[in-house]
Amino acid sequence: MFTFGMLDGALFHIGPIPVDHIIVTQWVIIALIGLVAFMATRDMQMVPRGLQNAFEALIVWTYDFFTQLMDKEHIAKKYAPLLSTFFLFIIVSNYSGLIPGAGNIPGYQPPTANWNTTLTLALITAITVQIAGFSEHGVHYLGHFISPSPLMLPLNLLEEITHPLSLFLRLFGNIFGEEMILAFMLYLVPFFVPALLMGLSVLLAAIQAVVFTILSASYIATATGEGH
Amino acid sequence: MGIALGAGLAVSIAGLGGGVGMGIAGGKAIEAIARQPEVGGDVRTLMFITFAFIETLTIYGLLIAFMLVGKM
Question: Do A173 and B59 touch (CB under 8 A)?
Answer without folding.
Answer: yes
